[in-house]
Amino acid sequence: MLFASRDMDRDGWLDANVAHSAFKDVQIEVMHFDYAYEAVPKSRDACHELAFQFGIEVGTYIEGVMATGKRPARGVQGR
Q1: What are the pLDDT tens digits along the chain (79 aa)?
Q2: Which of 7, 17, 35, 66 could join 12 via S-S bond, C-beta 3.0 to 4.6 A?
Q3: Phi and psi angles of residue 42, each rounded to the nearest 5 degrees, phi first
Q4: Closest CA to 62 of 33, 28, 19, 30
Q5: How far from the centroid of its chain's Cα atoms is residue 61's Cα?
Q6: CA atoms lying within 13 Å on the CB side of residue 71
Q7: Residue-range domain boundaries for the chain
């Protein structure tokens, strides 16, 4: 996201404000993931499920921003 917003050839196609706001949304989601990780039972399956769900949600959010060039009104998973 950040590279797509940089003016590499004076052809940066993603607005820098959108990219930075979306980047902050992802950072906040990482903090939520960290908090959830501390609460999850420390088993391989539980950790795998949490990480998989996090990857799907954040990946979908980033793909949406990159495809539309707009940041959703709500952050990752409606937060």
Answers
A1: 767 666 555 556 778 788 888 888 899 999 999 999 999 888 999 999 999 999 999 998 888 888 888 888 776 765 6
A2: 7
A3: -80, 70
A4: 19
A5: 6
A6: 20
A7: 10-68
Which position has the token pair 């906040």? 28
The length of the chain in residues reads: 79
**Amino acid residing at 71:** R
The single residue listed with the structure tokens 């979908």 is: 60
Exposed / middle / buried, residue 64 (Cβ in 10 Å: 0-12, 13-18, 19+): middle
